[in-house]
TrEMBL record:
The keyword Transferase applies. The keyword Transferase applies. One of its GO terms (molecular function) is glycosyltransferase activity. Pathway: Protein modification; protein glycosylation. This is Predicted O-linked N-acetylglucosamine transferase, SPINDLY family. It comes from the Bacteria. It comes from Cedecea neteri. Keywords: Glycosyltransferase, Transferase. PANTHER family: PROTEIN O-GLCNAC TRANSFERASE, UDP-N-ACETYLGLUCOSAMINE--PEPTIDE N-ACETYLGLUCOSAMINYLTRANSFERASE SPINDLY-RELATED.
Amino acid sequence: MGVPTLTLCGATMAGRQGVDIMRSYGLEQFVAFSEADYISKAIGWREHFDELNEIRVGMRGKIPTENERGFNVAGTFEQALQEAWRMYCAGEAARTFTVLE
């Protein structure tokens, strides 16, 4: 958590999601709208390390740990990964399971 990511706006789900995430955190300067813009921004940020570090340090406070309904997305995902790992280590067959809040 806390690393701004340069993203290329495009037709893919990943591109659209990256744009949405950067905008929601007020980091529009990390959105590129063409490959040339992406390269330019990457080179530009490489030359502004101190500013990039200030942004990185301040990001943890901008990223909510819960959604608007109070649901802890990261914590629940962590529980799911732990359960999947437990099942794998126990030699259980892959199956669907539910993680409760």
